[in-house]
Write a sequence for this structure.
């Protein structure tokens, strides 16, 4: 038990040096009641569902339905229908009656009590009133009343049509009440020019169907109105919708993400411009939206990746937040542990010069593990000390597209959490590369990348699983004869880490994976509470597998510096890398079939 004892001692040292924290976030419609009275009990049927939740995060798109598309129903009925169809973003109209009980138009003639009732309805359905559609009255006092009514309902914009002579007044009212104005015009060419003198609070509705009747192609119209676009009516046809969303993403390139200013937290987000997109409220169109939006989302992620630097672990300029993370620095004690634990010799001589592409991007709020720079520092040392590979650190996801990815021998995914593989060409490039003989290695959070791309999780062998920030356990060697773990000499490992408990509903299975290391429940104690997810008590953490002609190595450890601060574990990572590079032979027969 010499090695296990050594790891226990290192665990005590490192735990004293590790400061941890966690934040979580769900992108969804803003819940009413924040900063004011508590929201009423929810009667929403959609739960946490939101059509296009990822599109909201990546592109600022809020998906909902036009008031007219929901039919001749009351405001109250339309709100319930929108909720049941899966959106938290709502458009109401002044032509709607309030409810079956209140046969008044939904407009500024409602009393304060009736307005409060409408707000209560929105709140109990957890709906955000994004747009209020109304005809502008002929007199100025009534126009002011329209804005006051929209403001009272917390509407983001008023959708209307107006003569150019009214634009100065509407711009002033928009500024006064903090409510934008989206002008609906079948031919935006003349209107765009008329808006030049006014603020960005005055914008346009994009309606490709109307543009077509005016002889304007969708791409041309979108480019024309882009700077003033507040709402967009998406075509029903999937190819047209997909192309329009992609063109929208291309017209609005992201800025560079802000620097990381925390560890074990939601990573930085690139600011996005909000846009209300309406679709047809039919099951087919709703179901097709995620697929239609995927290329636009992927384009955005790739553009973000090009502007996201690698967390190199070197000390930079002081900045806000934890100095150990915000400037990329690694605490001295942890740096020493990683340095002293780094292998000095490759397990096998490389068959040829090898290139390992290392990616650590966690786009748009993906959970950023504080140990990401630790892993990069360790890989840098391994490459320099052993000559087993050249480590190329680059977050540009275009590198994963085929055939560019063939420039590398293997890909290393460093705790990538978030919509990394939104671009189909990026996901398919990696899958094809491995299937045709390449290799991929992942540590810790890597399986959490793009849970909406099941093919990626299937290749890696897992997706997500319940866990606690730190958990102590005895880890057993499931194949002590594997060259990847032979340095443990058959001994169990006392370890402290964030241990994922992959559920049976996911892709983790010994029928597909050759498991190298798992939690020894007999020595660690049974899984309890949220961690007790498998009737078979099989909680694998390290494995290899064949995928087509290629190789996969995954290590779910890595939340603490112990992974690279312990010689045997650091050697395991190097051996796993040499395996996926194609230099180290290892048995990949699924454990359940031996």
């Amino acid at each position: 038990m010499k090695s296990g004892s050594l790891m226990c001692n290192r665990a005590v040292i490192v735990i004293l040096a590790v400061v941890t924290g966690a934040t979580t976030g769900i992108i969804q419609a803003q819940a009413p009641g924040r900063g004011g009275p508590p929201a009423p009990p929810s009667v929403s049927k959609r739960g946490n569902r939101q059509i296009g939740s990822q599109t909201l995060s990546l592109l600022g798109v809020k998906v909902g339905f036009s008031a007219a598309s929901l039919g001749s129903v009351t405001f109250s009925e339309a709100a319930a229908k929108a909720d049941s169809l899966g959106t938290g973003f709502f458009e109401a109209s002044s032509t709607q009656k309030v409810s079956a009980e209140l046969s008044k138009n939904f407009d500024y003639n409602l009393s304060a009590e009736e307005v409060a009732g409408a707000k209560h309805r929105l709140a109990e359905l957890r709906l955000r009133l994004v747009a209020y559609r109304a005809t502008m009255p002929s007199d100025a006092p009534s126009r002011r009343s329209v804005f006051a009514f929209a403001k009272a309902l917390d509407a983001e914009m008023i959708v209307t049509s107006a003569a150019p002579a009214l634009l100065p007044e509407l711009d002033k009212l928009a500024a006064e009440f903090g409510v934008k104005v989206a002008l609906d015009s079948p031919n935006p060419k003349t209107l765009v020019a008329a808006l030049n003198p006014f603020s960005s609070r005055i914008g346009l509705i994009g309606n490709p169907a109307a543009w077509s009747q005016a002889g304007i192609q969708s791409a041309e119209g979108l480019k024309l109105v882009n700077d003033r676009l507040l709402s967009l009516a998406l075509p029903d046809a999937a190819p047209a919708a997909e192309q329009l969303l992609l063109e929208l993403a291309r017209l609005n390139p992201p800025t560079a993400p802000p620097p990381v200013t925390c560890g074990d937290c939601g990573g930085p987000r690139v600011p996005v411009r909000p846009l209300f997109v309406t679709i047809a409220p039919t099951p087919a169109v709703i179901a097709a939206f995620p697929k239609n939006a995927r290329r636009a989302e992927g384009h955005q992620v790739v553009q973000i990746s090009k502007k996201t630097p690698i967390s190199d672990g070197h000390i930079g300029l002081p900045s806000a937040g934890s100095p150990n993370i915000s400037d990329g620095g690694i605490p001295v004690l942890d740096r020493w542990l990683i340095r002293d634990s780094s292998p000095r010799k490759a397990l096998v001589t490389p068959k040829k010069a090898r290139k390992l592409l290392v990616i650590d991007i966690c786009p748009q709020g993906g959970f950023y593990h504080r140990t990401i720079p630790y892993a990069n520092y360790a890989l840098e040392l391994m490459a320099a000390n052993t000559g087993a590979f050249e480590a190329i650190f680059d977050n540009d996801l275009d590198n994963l597209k085929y055939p560019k990815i063939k420039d590398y021998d293997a890909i290393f995914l460093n705790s990538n959490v978030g919509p990394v593989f939104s671009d189909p060409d990026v996901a398919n490039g990696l899958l094809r590369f491995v299937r045709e003989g390449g290799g991929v290695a992942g540590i810790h959070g890597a399986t959490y990348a793009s849970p909406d791309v099941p093919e990626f999780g299937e290749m890696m062998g897992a997706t997500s699983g319940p866990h606690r920030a730190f958990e102590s356990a005895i880890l057993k060697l499931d194949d002590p004869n594997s060259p990847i773990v032979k340095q443990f000499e058959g001994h169990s490992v006392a370890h402290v880490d964030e241990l994922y408990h992959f559920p049976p509903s996911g892709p983790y299975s010994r029928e597909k994976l050759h498991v190298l290391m798992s939690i020894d429940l007999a020595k660690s104690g049974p899984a309890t509470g949220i961690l007790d997810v498998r009737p078979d008590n099989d909680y694998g953490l390290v494995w290899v597998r064949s995928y087509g002609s290629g190789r996969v190595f995954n290590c779910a450890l890595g939340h603490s510096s112990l992974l690279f601060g312990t010689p045997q574990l650091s050697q395991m990572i190097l051996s796993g890398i040499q395996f996926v590079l194609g230099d180290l032979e290892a048995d990949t027969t699924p454990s359940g079939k031996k």
About this structure: The chain is about 35% helix and 15% strand.
